[in-house]
Amino acid sequence: MSTTTLLRVYPVWIEAVGTVLQEIFRSPLPADTILQQFFRKHRKMGKRDRAFVAETVYGMLRHYRRLAYAARRRADDLRFLTLLYLKVFGFGAASLDLPVRPSEQGALEASVQRFQHPSLPDDPVAALGLCYSLPDWLIAAWLDTLPREAVEARCAALKAPAPLTIRVNTLKTDRETVRQRLRAEGFPSRPTPYSPVGLILEEKAFIFRTRAFQEGLFEVQDEGSQLISFLTEAQPGQVVVDGCAGGGGKTLHLAALMQGKGRLYAFDIHKARLQELRPRARRADVHNIRLHVLPHNRASIVRRLYGKADVVLVDAPCSGTGVLRRNPDAAWKMTPARVTALVEQQRQILDAYAPLVRPGGRLVYATCSLLPAENEQQVHAFLERHPDFVLAPATDVLSRQGIVLPHQRDAFLRVEPATHGTDGFFAAVLLRRS
Ligand SMILES: C[S@@+](CC[C@H](N)C(=O)[O-])C[C@H]1O[C@@H](n2cnc3c(N)ncnc32)[C@H](O)[C@@H]1O
């Protein structure tokens, strides 16, 4: 007896997918924000309808270029592209009853064939770009420094959905306790291979309603992101600055490493992002954070800290090319010109925050980018401008804390989905000479 269910796909679902996609391409806002806005406007949509729309939108963003190639003349027809996507990828284990019009049938079947067996160009940039639905400029930048097989593995891994990973709040509990608590609430998980405080949920689930979450026992945070805070080796009683704190994912981890003791400054230029940190800190029982919205990086609070910080973390705004599996729309919104502007912004932020580090203290620079211009090149240029800083091997810093990170070839930390199963992160530990 077959257990496959037949799911009827309603034309309004297809329409909803098209509306959301159109807005994502039009707006500078990220896809998850647009989806949330859409669902807020359509409160009557049920749980299953929302899941269908969200999953289909994300899937289409992941494979957009190849879908458009396969659809040929109908590439501008979002209804057709959605049907094509659903024909190729389906939705979960259900078999789909799609609202295909008889006039669309032939073109759809031919497009499915072209999607599954594309005739790829000889040029490796165009071939990989089409095959993995990524822009040529990005593939070209990667092929400049990596062999084709490594680029292909990276592209393939960035196309797979990311796992749901959490960081256990060691201010309140330990990893095994959270694992048991979540299992008891119906959410089994396994330990992360590298971070000693992470768990990977066996299945994607809405875990914000669990008691364990409401009690502040964990935060959702990718394992790569968790490793960045360990590079700071922040200690209780220290003066620690999180210069680009955003919603505070890493700030909260720094607070846990400091055991809630010492001064932890969270700076950001965006008030709304920093505001997200307040309720998260309350839930996590963190009370040593001082939040400051900066009009610019030479604000008086920043100047007052010159030479005083034991640790400064610069988790810089970047292209987000390391987190494309979570934000696939970024591939289509980012441009080489935008990357150039980001590199300049990162340089300015680094130069503004470097004077805060006390002699003998450390600056940790991190991005979720996989582009050398934002990473290695940015750090080498920094070291040329600031001869009072030296690079410390990231693997040494981690191994002192019992973290063994494979596939590291030099002093930098590099993790990504293809090699570590994490999001793509880059980091450098820069020590200020005493
Ligand atoms: C990669 S995000 C930070 C993510 C955050 N650290 C976390 O772990 O959740 C970069 C942040 O830098 C902020 N930013 C951009 N320019 C800045 C500047 N000049 N000074 C401080 N923060 C800045 C952005 O608003 C954004 O929140």
TrEMBL record:
GO terms for biological process: RNA methylation. The active site is at 368 (nucleophile). S-adenosyl-L-methionine binds at residues 268, 315. Residues 154-433 form the SAM-dependent MTase RsmB/NOP-type domain. Transmembrane segments: none annotated. One of its GO terms (molecular function) is RNA methyltransferase activity. InterPro entries: MeTrfase_RsmB-F_NOP2_cat, MeTrfase_RsmB-F_NOP2_dom, RCMT, RsmB-like_ferredoxin, SAM-dependent_MTases_sf. The keyword Transferase applies. The keyword Iron-sulfur does not apply. Keywords: Methyltransferase, RNA-binding, S-adenosyl-L-methionine, Transferase. Pfam families: Methyltr_RsmB-F, RsmF-B_ferredox. Gene3D superfamilies: Sun protein, domain 3 (3.30.70.1170), Vaccinia Virus protein VP39 (3.40.50.150). PANTHER family: NOP2 YEAST -RELATED NOL1/NOP2/FMU SUN DOMAIN-CONTAINING (PTHR22807), RIBOSOMAL RNA SMALL SUBUNIT METHYLTRANSFERASE B-RELATED (PTHR22807:SF53). Belongs to the class I-like SAM-binding methyltransferase superfamily. RsmB/NOP family. This is 16S rRNA (Cytosine967-C5)-methyltransferase. It comes from Rhodothermus profundi.
